[in-house]
Structure formats: structure tokens, C-alpha cells
Amino acid sequence: MRHALKVGLFMLGSYTISHILSVHVGTARESLIHSTAFSFFAVVVGLLIAAVGIFLGSLGNLYALIASSEGISVGVRRKAIGLISKSVNQVKQDVFLTLSALATAIALQFLKYADLPCVKWPLVEGSMTKVVVYDALVIWLAIVSMAAIFDCVRVMFLLHQHYEEIAKARLNREPPPS
Questions:
Q1: pTM, 2 dp
Q2: 91 assigned to some structural domain
Q3: Burial level of 156, CB count in 10 A (0-12/13-18/19+)?
Q4: Domain count, the chain
Q5: pLDDT per residue over 35-73, tens digit each?
């Protein structure tokens, strides 16, 4: 419950900030979003793909270390594998969140200027116009994508911590070299 509240407050706060930015940037907003939004998402997706490649490459080494650790109890091994599985699920969620944000940002750019039949935007002037809201959503998706990248990096360091714990446990169990 506490985690859900933090995530909800982050989402609400980041959208509020992006909406305020979108309103106050004014006419420069259009060129700013068009020139940087898709480049930003391309960089974020590239970073995420690189991070996942490193992450998956490290997993093989970590599983091999766990499998070859004969002096470590089965309970410790199961706990380590459970923690690693949890980390993998977090990275998977971050990847799908970022790819979904990219797809949504692209769709919003098309929908922003589309006149869909039977759908009329209620406000034509002010801070809640269709263009302002859609641009704020694109900025918000960029903020959420950056949060996913930070979470992915956090998981990388967590993976390193798991690796270190298994290595220490293995060193403590093995006899010293003669």
C-alpha cells in the first residue's frame, strides 16, 4: 500500500510539473517537443536496451556462481535465486513501461492534431487545450521513462550486491588455498 501511494504521488506530481511546464513554455513548446521528444525517447530506449544486455549477461555469471557453490546451503541458494528473480521482474517491468511510453508518445503526436469524428475536445482556450494536455503527457512520459531508467540502474547495483553476497558466502565456506 505504501509503495502504491509513493508511485501514485510520483505520477501525479510529475504530471503536474509537466503540465505547468507545458503551459508556461508557450509557443516554444511545439518546437521543443518536436525537436527533442523523439530523440529523448530513442536515447532512453537505447540506454535501456544496453542496460538489459549487461544485466542479462551478468545473470549467467551469477547463476553459474550459485550453481557451483557447493559449500553454501540450499536455503541460501534459494533465497539468492528468489532475489535475482525479483530483480529480473523489475527490469522487465521497466523495459515494458519505457516501450509503452514510447508507443504512447508517438500515438499522442498523431492524435494531437487528429479530428476524430464524435470526439470533441471541450476546451479551446486556456491551459487545458488539447495541444497543451497532449504535450504535457509527452513530457510526463519522458519523466516516467527516466524514472524507469533510474530504477533499472538501481537494479543493476542490486544485482552486483547479490553477486558480492554469494561470492563472500562461497569464500567463507571454502578452505584457504595451500
A1: 0.75
A2: yes
A3: middle
A4: 1
A5: 677 777 778 778 778 878 877 887 877 777 777 777 677
Is residue 29 in a domain?
yes
Q: Which residues form the domain of 149? A: 2-173
CA distance 88 to 156: 10
Cell numbers at residue 150, please?
Answer: 533510474
Cα gap 159→59, rounded to integer Å: 8
Q: Is residue 149 part of a domain?
A: yes
Selection from 17-31, 134-148, 161-175 with the highest mean pLDDT: 134-148
Dist CA 14 CA 167 (whole Å): 40
| Residue of 61, 66, 58, 60 whose CA lies nearest to 82 | 66
Residue 174, pLDDT > 70, answer no
Q: Which residues have CB under 8 Å from 60's CB, separation 6+?
A: none
pLDDT of residue 178: 43
